[in-house]
Amino acid sequence: MEDGKAIPFQTTYQGLYDRCEEHRNQPPFDLPGRWKTSQERIKLSVPYNFVSTADIIGGNSGSPVVNKAGEFVGIIFDGNIHSLVAGIAYDEEQSRAVAVHSAGIIEALQSVYNAGDLVKEIRSGQLP
User: Could you say which enzyme class this protein belongs to (predicted)?
Assistant: First the structure.
C-alpha cells in the first residue's frame, strides 16, 4: 500500500512500455532505441521487476534472489524508501527489496540483445 493505493508486487514489460508512452518517451522515462525497436519481439507479459520483503541494506545490489526451492529468480538492485533504515531497524510491513526478475533477464537477452547463445549457456549451466 502506498498513498492509500495497492501496488502490484511485480511489473511486466507491458508496464515498461506503457510508462514510457505515458511520459511521451521523455527523460527519465525514455527508452534506448534498441528497446523501442524490440517492442514487437518482446513478450510483454513477461515479469520485469518484483518486490520482496528481503531484509537489505546499502551494498546489496547484485545479490541473488532465490525461492524456497533454491532456484535463482532475480537480482536485487534497489529498495523502496522504507528500506533505507534497514541497517538500524527492519519493518516487514513497509520495507521492500526491488529485483529484476530472472525471466525478464532472459527475455531481454533473447528479444532485445539477440544473445540466444548466452541464454542457452545460462539455461544449461554449461559453456557451448
Answer: hydrolase
Residue 72, beta-bridge partner list: 66
Instruction: Please name each of the domains of the chain with its CATH number.
Output: 10-124 (2.40.10)
Write the DSSP assignment of 62-125 as a string of letters.
T-EEE-TT--EEEEEEEE-GGGGGTTT---TTT--EEEEEHHHHHHHHHHTS--HHHHHHHHHT
Rounded Cα gap, residues 35 and 61, in angstroms:
23
Q: Which residues of the chain have pLDDT under 50?
A: none
Which pLDDT score, from 0 to 100, does residue 79 have? 82
Do 74 and 87 meet the contact criterion of CB atoms below 8 Å apart? no
